[in-house]
Amino acid sequence: MAAGPHTFVVADVFTSERYLGTQLAIVSVRNNALSRARKQRIALEFGYVNTVFLHDAPQPGLSRKVEIFSKTGERSFSGQAVLGAAHYIFQKLEGEDSISINDWSNPPAAEIQQKRQAPKSINRCTLETKGGLIQAHYDPARQVAAIEIPHNIHIHARETTKDEVLAVQRQLLPRAEETDKMRASYPIFSIAPGMTFTLVDFTSCPSLLPRLEHGYAPEPTLDAGWTVRVGEDAPTPFCGCVYFLQLQTDFTEEPYITRLRVRVIAAGLEEAASASGCSALAAYLALQKGGANSRHAYAIEQGVDIGRGRLL
After folding, report:
1. What is the phi/psi pair of residue 106, to 5°?
2. Given the DSSP bridges, would you call strands 50-55 and 8-13 parallel, antiparallel or unpaired?
3. Continuous H helices in the chain
4. How many CB atoms sit inside 10 A of residue 231's CB?
5. How far apart are alpha carbons 305 and 213 in whole angstroms?
6. Which pTM value belongs to this model?
7. CATH number of the domain encompassing residue 208
8. How is residue 119 annotated by DSSP?
9. GO molecular-function annotation terms (predicted)?
10. What's the number of CA atoms in the CB half-sphere (13 Å) around residue 189?
11. Does residue 175 contact residue 169 with C-beta atoms inside 8 Å?
12. pLDDT classification of 99: cutoffs 50, 70, 90
């Protein structure tokens, strides 16, 4: 991809319909034309959960560098951001190591039709993030992209207390009849160093889930060695909160599928669809169920309460 520093598109990730899913800005970067401070200002201006800065591949077939910024700082990884960037590469940059500025966000109708009719020339690519190399795959028949999420899971010794959860969702305090049903504390789970979530199970008090407000996650206490930021330019560790209900399990055939309803809140925002948060929750629940050589599957509803409902 060859483009100027002001070339961008906005994508709705985890949906095939406009105005659903979660929004992602993808900004083209050529020759490191943007400073880190400028990237942060651009991310703040967009105001989305994530903004991706996508670099050209050094040569056709080589990995593309991806930088991910939230409103508050750079992130080492985001499943939603990487998947959105990968899907854009497969859909718009397939078989090309560059694309013109004029065509980047508004390709001619004839070109779009030609691309749809032509056989897909890419079915995998590699994206280089601060969290490591991410392999992405594409099914051209279904027009579906998937990524292999690197993980190094860890359950921290200390849990987030009920009072710490209510401190960031104070509008729940008057509902004592329901908050009395909350657990005393909730697990803190890292899917990788620098990517941590408090997992709050509201199954025993479901009426609290729709009453959540966008805001901040409780500040977790992490085990030694899991606070990863080193140096001023290092990505900011991400701490979010996953609130969820366990709905039902389909026992029709293995792997049995458990339905969950989820809200992910962090850094002043609510994510309509959080791949990292949902992956962390699924990994944690699978560990709790256990079973040698067992397989677990989850169908996760997210974004329902903010009008951008999706199934992950």
Report:
1. -135, 70
2. unpaired
3. 36-46, 79-92, 101-105, 109-117, 162-168, 176-179, 275-289
4. 6
5. 10
6. 0.80
7. 3.10.310
8. P
9. isomerase activity
10. 24
11. no
12. very low
